[in-house]
């Protein structure tokens, strides 16, 4: 079995498909190809995004992963939007989306100054970017809320499970939770977190 691989904005799934998203101006879509480059599917349309509750388009999707057991594409839609959004991996049909703590995302939320962000109560909203996403074999969705220096864990339906801060006192704007990898043992006992600000 070859493990799926992911890079910033590019993901290869368990069926050998390649998914591509961008975070440039007007990048409101995701493209799916075969591993030989044949176009398969497009989700969303360029320059059509209408915010974090738009079910047809993404806006600056940072990372994607397909969960084989449900054949769903989970997207960290977070360079401009502030959410996780889920699509059917075959048809591209919208399934569901959520923001921090499993609540509807709120694009009107103003992120406080960095010192207040680090010492006050946890922020009720994802910040930009929502940068990383993995789904474990037991159906838990791990989401990197990079600028808030935390990851949040959800059930497949978006129900909030818990959050973990990674070096919460980090002052750099880029934040700490840049990417994830699950260990390859059958139990996936470890989640490895790339802390970009602290180079750890």
Structural overview:
It contains 1 helix and 15 strands, in the order E-E-E-E-E-E-E-E-E-H-E-E-E-E-E-E. The strands form 4 sheets. It has a 5-stranded antiparallel sheet with strand order 1-2-3-4-5, with no helix packed on it. The protein has a 4-stranded antiparallel sheet with strand order 6-7-8-9, with no helix packed on it. A 4-stranded antiparallel sheet has the order 10-11-12-13, with no helix packed on it. Residues about 1-5 have low confidence and may be disordered. It has about 200 residues and is mainly β. The chain is globular and about 50 Å long.
Count every helix, treating DSSP H or I runs of 4 or more residues as helices: 1
Mean pLDDT: 92
Q: Fraction of residues in helices?
A: under 10%
Spans of at least 5 consecutive residues with low confidence: 1-5
Which structural class fits the helix and strand makeup? mainly beta
| Rg over C-alpha atoms, rounded to the nearest angstrom | 16 Å
How is the biggest beta sheet arranged?
5 strands, antiparallel
Strand-helix topology:
Elements: E1 5-7, E2 10-12, E3 18-21, E4 30-33, E5 39-43, E6 61-67, E7 72-77, E8 83-88, E9 94-98, H1 114-119, E10 130-135, E11 140-145, E12 150-155, E13 160-165, E14 177-182, E15 191-195
């Amino acid at each position: 079995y070859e493990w799926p691989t992911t890079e910033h904005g590019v993901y290869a799934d368990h069926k050998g498909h390649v998914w591509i998203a961008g975070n440039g101006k007007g990048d409101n879509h995701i493209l799916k190809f075969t591993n030989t480059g044949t176009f398969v599917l497009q989700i969303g349309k360029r320059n059509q995004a209408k915010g974090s509750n738009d079910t047809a388009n993404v806006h600056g999707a940072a990372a994607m992963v397909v969960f084989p057991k449900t054949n769903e594409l989970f997207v960290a839609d977070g360079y401009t939007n502030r959410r996780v959004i889920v699509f059917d991996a075959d048809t591209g049909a919208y399934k569901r989306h959520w923001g921090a703590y499993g609540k509807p995302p709120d694009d009107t939320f103003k992120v406080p100054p960095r010192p207040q962000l680090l010492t006050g109560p946890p922020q009720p909203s994802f910040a930009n970017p929502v940068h990383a996403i993995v789904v474990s074999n037991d159906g838990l969705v791990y989401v990197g809320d990079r600028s808030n220096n935390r990851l949040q864990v959800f059930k497949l339906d978006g129900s909030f499970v818990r959050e973990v801060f990674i070096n919460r006192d980090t002052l750099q704007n880029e934040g700490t939770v840049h990417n994830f990898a699950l260990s390859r043992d059958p139990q996936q006992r470890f989640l490895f977190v790339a802390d970009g600000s602290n180079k750890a």
